[in-house]
Amino acid sequence: MTLEPALLQTLDAKKARLDALRPLPQHTLSSLREKLTLEWTYHSNAIEGNTLTLRETKVVLEGITVGGKTLREHFEATNHRDAIHYVEAVVAKNEPLTEWLIRNIHSLVLKGIDDNEAGRYRQENVVIAGASTTPPDFLHLPAEMDTLIRWHEEAAGMHPVERAAELHTRFVKIHPFVDGNGRTGRLLLNLELMKAGFPPAIIRKEDRLSYYDALDDACANGDYRAITRLVGEAVERSLTTYLDVLAPRA
To answer: Which of 113, 167, 182, 186 is the most exposed place for a label (fewest CB within 10 A)?
Structure first.
């Protein structure tokens, strides 16, 4: 168990309250999804250095070009939105996690940015600045990714939040692509959560340092407690957002 019992109880209690409200009102659900898609896109890209503000991200997603920002930054916003829509479709069809699915998510993340590398495992070795571990040799990537999928199949009994946090960490440690691993990893994190009926966890830009520290600790030492707590707290924020709109307390 990597999730503190008190946080686990809070998450399960809030999810039970949300589940009791289903089916959710369509227009309310649509506006909540739009809000979380915007915030997820903004924060996930900002963690990686994208300089669009939350408001600028919103207008880019509405099809407006923001002056003084690079074409790549515009693509990162619209690509991420499209990748979220793909993940939502996967969840709706309850498709199993496969390497093909992961490559598809990555293809959307890098579409128009680096089409040669989109959906393609790296063909070279890399190091990650500031990390305590070195990603595996590129020749080992097919075996590493196969092991990841098999681990996921065997982890069905874990609490969804713990499983999602560990899946994310294991993927990031493999670092199978030249670019876009962080965004793809956070999309996988939320694919796992959403399949289990949780709203997406939004890792905030302002939590970037603690997020990187927690990931590094998990990758280097196999200690998933910090990354799982960080994900759990993010899930709780999203659950609270839903419940505040759907079932406001007097």
So the answer is: 113
